Amino acid sequence: MKILRLTHTGENTTFPKDRTSLCILLSILASCMLTAVLQGSSFFYSTHYTKILVLSCLFALYAGFFIYLKASKRLTDNTFVFMIIFLGVLLRCSYVLLSGLYDRQHDAGAYTGMGTSFVNPGHIGYIEYIYKFHKLPDINPYELFAYYHPPLHHILSCIWLQLNIWLGVSEELAFENLQILPLLYSCLCMFVTWKILDTLKIMGNGLFIGLAFMVFHPATIIMAGSVNNDMLTILFMSLTILGTLKWIQNKDLKHLIPLALYIGLGMITKLNSAVLAIPVGLIFLMHFISVIRGRNKTEILKWIKNYCIFGAIVIPIGLSWIVRNLIRFGEKPGVPVPGETSPMYTAGFSLWQRLGIPSLADWHFDFPFHPISAKACSNTWVIMFHTSLFAEEYPTGLSDILLVLCQITFLLAVILGIATAILLIAVLFSQNTDLETRVFLLTGYLIMLISFAAFVIIYPYTCSSDFRYVAICLVYISIALGLGNRYFLHMFVDFTGFLEQAVPAIMHIINYGIIAVLVLINIIYLFWERW
Can you tell me the distance from the alpha carbon of 505 to that of 493, in angstroms, rounded to the nearest whole number? Predict the structure, then answer.
């Protein structure tokens, strides 16, 4: 049997991981603060094309620096990671600078300012309520839209808003700067994804393409400018994945406490982050069973104590919002719905039409955008793919060339979406993946999709099928790409005959397909004037 193996150059000793981490975090913080400053400068009020010209010069400088590093042979693994993430930071900052407070938002609502006593709906209104009255809403949170959400994101946004005011920023600009926190969360999510891949010992091309998928996918770039709680939720869910993987490798209280905080804080940001508590709990159960089988009473008592500490942290934090609403208003967790008269209402369609395998006509490859109306498209998976690339946009003045690019990109994205889902299952069932990591990642991925489908059934509207509700799956696909490259290209491959040649070839096709989709979608947005 022939052996296929790609060599790896190893770690860069002149630019170690700790220094890379520090540089990335400092560059993220500095870029976000600079973006906040630019929003208050004359740059923010210049024309769209002036902004594009200035930002194009900035990207040209980036390209020149990248070429210099490559030519001088300084572009090693850690510097390449830094350059990938920093380019993602530039894209996100550019998007925020080119989009306003009310552009492409979800359930944003509006603000009326400190000079009024109005209580406004939406996430902006929720933030304004806390800012204006210095307390959580004392009204039934289900009587005003978006107020049913747990308050962590809105409290942090209020603090940031107040800090802007204290620094002399006008109220209008302070509200505009609400985009800065989601920008920070989106940038940090790239950093956490890198740490996840590094924890799984993914290096070389697998690391680069897995990280690039998360960095350049349009979903988290667009959410970087959103003022709702989606991006902070994804950050906490990413941290939960990272924290669990680290706990699997170490199994000590030191790694258990941060994990409890990630889950608890995620739950008081958005309740759907609680779904990851299921695979985490399953891993805890597997571990505790192994401890019991060891028949060491000291060890058993130790882990009973550790898990009690975990519960004492996560339960009060995570359930605080639910308990508050139950006690004060008698309200159980739920989501207010627009009603059966809404054009988004999908309950009139069969379960198969909503959640079954889409027919070719359902995909709308000729115009791959989300039409909002359930009569035009009611299939959850189609809407999920539409909104993953193009959000809830339905452009009417798209040029023929851009439309063709959209059609090609969407078709490739659908094919690769299915291929990478299969790849994730393949790498997790590989003998190279340890049992606990396999169970945690596979269960988490499946639970996310099952809970997504259940959400669509319980709340039968096309808006329930938006990709933002399962955007954490981007992290899972990044892991699939990283492990796929590690197992099938960077290691000995245990295949014979046809599979010996086919498996590496398929992995290369997926790699190049992902690169093509990322390049095409960013070209589309560049000329679509979405930035």
Answer: 12
